[in-house]
Design a protein that fits this description.
11 helices; about 375 residues; 4-stranded mixed sheet; globular; alpha+beta
Length: about 375
């Protein structure tokens, strides 16, 4: 594996970073206070080809690799992890439809998704089934050519904001083999939303319950085959975990960059903070944590692109390692700012709040440990 980024990949990273610096970073605090991302941002994102990163060009996408995607989300998260992560969820939906949808389904949904005429959300978690996702209870019953949905999804990024909801529902028996994936479009009768959740971080993106009460969804909105939805959801999460790890990495890198600038100016005991050897050693540890995380993330993305048999294990390892290290780096950067790190004006406390949830979503890091250990034991038993 070649660890050097190609000229094209460097250009992708620079494009996303510069876009974020121009169109996201100056507004991130205001969007957090308002609790929403202006819809006017998304057409600008789509113009760069970032609305359908993993969708092929025939359907309006960019056809980029998973490794390319990690570069995009790391770069965007340097401006705001919350906005970058919201876009990653939209792209996770696009990648799932690209991989598992029929030709008719792709033609119907993907062009609008790539143009970001429609913003997409992913609905798996329920109030009673978080880590045990296969225990979901939202049920879809066939009736007169439709699926009639009843149930509730929880912690949905974009709940009440998005245009389409890629939703895992139970169409058959208990367990993972009874789950299917359907698209529920905004405005469908019987679709409603809870109040926006009050959150520690990720405040720019609205989060709410998504509720189905005799919600009639056309049968043609089924993605792939009935009963295969859980497999699709788990496959989508492999890529989603890479994206979330990349966004955590970008946020932590931004925190370290801010800290280096602060320490080069802040003086104590007659010299700038960056001249104290003990603090230099701390910086060395933070830089090593980020660079080692970057290597593991790139390797996992490469394995997913190559469809390696151990790709799922590596995606879980990357998500576990990168999100843990990224939060630790951001928290240490706050400490190095002293009291100023606790003030919103310095931009560090927001990063700390935003990155905390990366250790929880797309499968908690405890579940990542379970995935890794099971894969390891299976490999050993062969």
């Amino acid at each position: 594996m070649d660890f050097a980024s190609s000229e094209e990949q460097l250009a992708i990273f620079d494009m996303a970073r510069d876009f974020g610096a121009t169109h996201i970073a100056p507004h991130a605090d205001a969007w957090e206070q308002e609790g929403t991302i202006p819809r006017a941002l998304w057409p600008k994102v789509a113009e760069l080809g970032l609305g359908g990163i993993f969708v092929d060009e025939d359907h309006g996408g960019s056809g980029l690799s998973r490794l390319d995607g990690t570069l995009v989300f790391e770069a965007l998260a340097m401006s705001c992890p919350s906005v970058a992560s919201f876009l990653s969820i939209h792209n996770m939906c696009g990648g799932m439809i690209q991989k598992f949808g029929s030709d008719a389904t792709k033609e119907r949904f993907l062009p609008g998704l790539c143009r970001m005429d429609q913003v997409w959300s992913y609905c798996l978690t329920e109030p009673g089934s978080g880590s045990d996702a296969a225990a979901l209870r939202t049920r879809a019953v066939r009736r007169d050519g439709d699926y009639m949905l009843n149930g509730t999804k929880a912690f949905i990024s974009g709940g009440g904001y998005s245009d389409c909801y890629l939703t895992m529902v139970r169409t058959g028996q208990d367990g993972p083999k009874g789950i299917s994936a359907v698209v529920v479009q905004d405005g469908t009768p019987g679709l409603s939303f809870g109040a926006n959740e009050r959150k520690m971080g990720w405040r720019a993106q609205p989060t709410a319950q998504v509720q189905f009460d005799d919600c009639a969804v056309p049968a043609e909105n089924l993605i792939g085959d009935e009963g295969r939805g859980f497999a699709y959801a788990m496959a989508g999460l492999d890529g989603g975990r890479l994206n979330i790890a990349a966004a955590a990495l970008g946020g932590a890198q931004a925190a370290l960059d801010k800290t280096l600038g602060y320490m080069s100016e802040r003086r104590a005991f007659g010299q700038t903070l960056d001249q104290f050897q003990a603090l230099q050693f701390r910086l060395a540890e933070l830089e090593t944590a980020l660079q080692s995380s970057r290597i593991l993330l790139r390797q996992a993305a490469w394995k997913l692109d190559q469809r390696a048999p151990d790709a799922t294990k590596f995606c879980a390892m990357a998500k576990l390692h990168v999100t843990d290290r990224a939060f630790e780096v951001a928290n240490a950067c706050l400490q190095l700012h002293g009291g100023y790190g606790y003030l919103a004006d310095y931009g560090i406390e927001k990063i700390v709040r935003d990155l905390r949830v990366h250790q929880i979503l797309e499968g908690t890091n405890e579940i990542m440990r379970l995935i890794i250990s099971r894969a390891l034991l299976t490999e050993h038993a062969r």
